[in-house]
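name: query_chain
kind: protein
chains: 1
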Amino acid sequence: DEIYSAILQKGGYRTANLSSEGHRLDNQLRVIRDLASQGYRPRGVLVEMTLNNTLASYVQALKELKQPLPRPGEKEKTKKKPTATERLTKKIRDLRSLASFGWIDVKARLINNSAFYCWLKVGINGVPWLREWTLRVGLRADVAYANPAPVDLMEDIPGNPNEALIETTADFAAAIQSWVYDNLKVPVAIILIPSHHHLNKARFERYRKFLGRKKGELDPTRPYRRLLEELKKRGVVVFDMAGVMMASDKMLSFPD
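structure:
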C-alpha cells in the first residue's frame, strides 16, 4: 500500500506497475515497447530510476533502440541445435549442480524452492527487531557495504572515466522520453530516487569505515546530483525526490 502506484490508485488513477526487481532501464523500455506493439496505450508513463542500481553503460541499449524489438523465439529459430554430446554434457552439468552442497548452491536451491527461506530473506524485513538480530549474529550481510556504482563517483575527480556511466544513463533516459513521446504521444517523467547511502547517514558511515576512507573524502550525494544535472541538461522531465525523502522521519527505501 506504500508504493506510489498503489497510492495513485487510491487517488482514482488506473495504474499498471511494470517494475521488476534487479532490472535496469533497458529491460523496462523493452516491456514498454512490447506492450505498445500489442496496442496498449497509457495516458502517461512514469519511470523510476534509483541510484541503488540504475547507473550503467547503456551504449548497446541505445543501439538496440534503433532496431526492431526482438520477438520471443526468434533467437531459438536461428540457433544451431546442440549435438548429442553437447546435450549429454549439459545434463551432467545440471546433475552436478543439483548434487553440489556448496553454500552458494544450497542457497540458490533454497531461494528457488523454499517459501520459508524466502521469508527469512525478504519477509523478515517487516519484523525490525528480528532482522536486526539476524544481522548481529551474522545470518545476513550488512547492506551498508553494498554499492553497485563505482566508489570514485562519490569524488570529484577530473577526467574520471566512470563519469561516462552517468552520462550514458542520462542519454538513455532522454531516449526513453523521446520514444514515448514519438510512439505513444503521452507525457512521460522520471522519478529519481537517491541511493541508500545518500538517504541513510549511519549506513554511509559504516560503508566509509569499511572502505578505510577518511571523513569528507566521499560524498554520497554526488552521484545523484550529477545524474540530476545531466538529466536536466537533456530536457528530461524529472521529479527530484531527494529533499522529500531526506525530510521523512523514516528511511523510504528497501531495508536490504
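note: The beta strands are 45-50, 188-193, 238-240.
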